[in-house]
Design a protein that fits this description.
The protein is mostly helical. It contains twelve helices and no strands.
């Protein structure tokens, strides 16, 4: 090893570190996938706790018992999520046939202008139900029955809700528990890292929810003004898609433009495209800097790679969880960089002058 030049030894050391980190990360991901029925509820509960934490803290400040406050918060989230799911599903059911019919008409129009490519799109729209059935059968090939999938999903949802209750109720004990389990010399650093990661996830969840609501309202109003069919259902798609940054907004916006093109013509489709682009510009240049200014800002390329990796590991659920978890990791990295930079730039204390017997 000493015969190698110094740059080669450094490169070998970095390669060993990268391989070690990659191996540990791969093993961690595989373990999470293997124990997904326990890991997924914990992650969902952490996201829910980050989103509902401010409401719980306000109730506690109003001198409500912590357990009662946590229970009221969980009841509120069940009511809100249940109502939102009902509104989204009802809107999609009411306008689903209309949206699909408009997409088929758009496919026919594209086929008239682009030939074989448009015909393939029309065939895809016509056989969408059959393709979804085949995809569902392939995805569930390793599962004993569809009932077990539904039962597992319900069990994970109930477990996540119970964990949200306990996390909210005992949130004041988290710091003490972390410090008691960590080495004494590293307690401050671990606490700072945990706080930074939680603040990043909390800011991401609250900011994304508010931005999704504003985007959905703006696009729904714009589509209603343009008299595009299924505006409520398209707005619901925009709200759900906003939790998948960039990709979700692109797909939901594309569906809205295609529906406008099929049902209202080329000019209205251009106006719908203008509405979608205006909302995206508003989100990127106004809403995100104002609402998510305290969260960890990630480059769009990092976000896209994170979403792709999450989709390859856990499908849609992985796409939803990948960005907040990456935000937490970025928060930890920023905290470590700040602490090490502060310690490195701190001036060293000059040594005390030694007292010599000859000076006395």
């Amino acid at each position: 090893m000493h015969l190698l030049p110094d740059p080669v030894r450094r490169l070998a050391a970095w390669c060993a570190v990268v391989l070690l980190v990659a191996g540990v990360g791969y093993i961690g991901v595989r373990l999470c996938v293997e124990f997904r029925t326990a890991v997924v509820p914990v992650l969902l509960a952490l996201l829910g706790t980050a989103l509902l934490g401010p409401l719980h803290r306000r109730l506690v400040k109003a001198r409500v018992n912590r357990s009662v406050a946590a229970g009221l918060t969980c009841v509120a989230v069940v009511a809100v999520v249940g109502g939102a799911v009902y509104i989204v599903v009802a809107a999609l059911i009411r306008s689903g046939d209309q949206i699909v019919r408009s997409l088929r008409q758009a496919a026919r129009g594209i086929s008239e202008h682009f030939g074989a490519a448009g015909t393939s799109l029309h065939d895809l729209a016509s056989n969408a139900r059959e393709l979804l059935g085949k995809f569902g059968g392939t995805a569930a090939s390793g599962v004993i029955s569809g009932v077990s999938v539904v039962g597992e999903s319900i069990a994970m949802a109930v477990l996540a809700l119970l964990l949200v209750f306990f996390f909210l109720r005992d949130s004041h004990l988290a710091v003490g528990t972390l410090r008691s389990l960590s080495p004494h010399t590293a307690a401050d650093t671990l606490e700072a890292m945990a706080r930074r990661a939680y603040q990043a996830v909390e800011g991401f969840m609250r900011g994304t929810t508010l931005i999704a609501l504003i985007d959905a309202l703006c696009i729904t109003v714009g589509l209603l003004v343009l008299r595009v069919p299924g505006a409520a259902g398209l707005g619901a798609l925009v709200f759900v898609g906003a939790y998948i940054p960039y990709l979700g907004a692109f797909l939901s916006g594309a569906v809205a433009v295609l529906v406008a093109l099929a049902d209202r013509g080329f000019v209205i489709a251009l106006w719908a495209l203008a509405v979608v682009l205006a909302v995206q510009v508003l989100e990127g240049h106004v809403l995100q800097p104002m609402i998510q200014s305290r969260t960890v800002q990630m480059h769009p390329a990092v976000v896209m790679l994170t979403i792709t990796a999450g989709a390859s590991v856990a499908g849609i659920l992985g796409m939803l969880l990948a960005v907040p978890l990456t935000a937490a990791a970025f928060g930890v990295v920023h905290e470590l960089r700040a602490r090490y930079a502060t310690s490195a730039s701190a001036p060293s204390t000059p040594p005390a002058p030694s007292s010599d017997s000859s000076d006395s």
